[in-house]
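User: I'm writing a tutorial on reading structure tokens. Could you give me a worked example: one chain, its sequence, then its tokens, then a sentence or two explaining what the tokens reveal?
Assistant: Sure. Here is the example chain.
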Amino acid sequence: MQTVRLDYDDGVGLLTLNRPEQLNALDLAMKTDLAEAIAHVQADSRMRALVVTGAGRAFCAGGDVRSMPSGPDTAQQGRRRLSDHSTWIAGLIGLDRPVIAAVNGAAFGAGFSVALMADFVFAAKSARFCASFGRLGLVPDCGLHWLLPRVVGMQRAREILFTTREIGAVEAVELGIALRSADDAQVVEQAMAFAHGFTEASAMSLAMSKEILRSSWTADLATVLALEASAQGIAFSTEYHQNAAARFRAREAQPFPPQAWSGRGTSGT
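And here are its predicted structure tokens:
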């Protein structure tokens, strides 16, 4: 993989978009590398959580305009160009473990989408989120129409998508786009520390809960209750639950959640 870097740190993967001179703009090579990296994470049970960040001074500046065709696409060509290279999107959104985006600098266009593909977003003070597609007469893509309304609601999503205005770190926290903000020098460190907190959690219960949450947007209550019952039946049967229940009855300390989380707020700086 030439355009992304995947590192491992004691139970947590760190996926770095690695085209800093291009502000980590997405081109075909990066989309291919992302698909490969995400598949690797999915297959590696050692990685209990994943942090995604960008090398250099930007998270991701969006699609690489310079790599796009200089002449007009036909509608069919444009559609195929996106559709044929979108497996990485479903792969990242559907990853069966917690994903944390550490957003440094610009998260523009498709970079905004990438940030929202994560379960949690940590925004550096320099972070700027922008659905910039309309500035080039384009339509938001990489799932942004699906992702953004689920975070901020439909009316606010329209305002952000249609106006193409920029959102800083403080407002991102206020809108729920980011979980918390951090100094630039510490955003990856804080995201990694948060990710490490999941290494002692039940991988099975987290994976099933993520799946049910995704389904809950389109499923009715009866379906969600059925999904919960099935997942709970599996969870009850796991060794993790049996050991945790035994520790609870014996009034012994549990390995999850970590003590560092106690009393910590879930938003803000």
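What the tokens reveal: The two ends are 34 Å apart (CA to CA). The first helix runs from residue 28 to 43.
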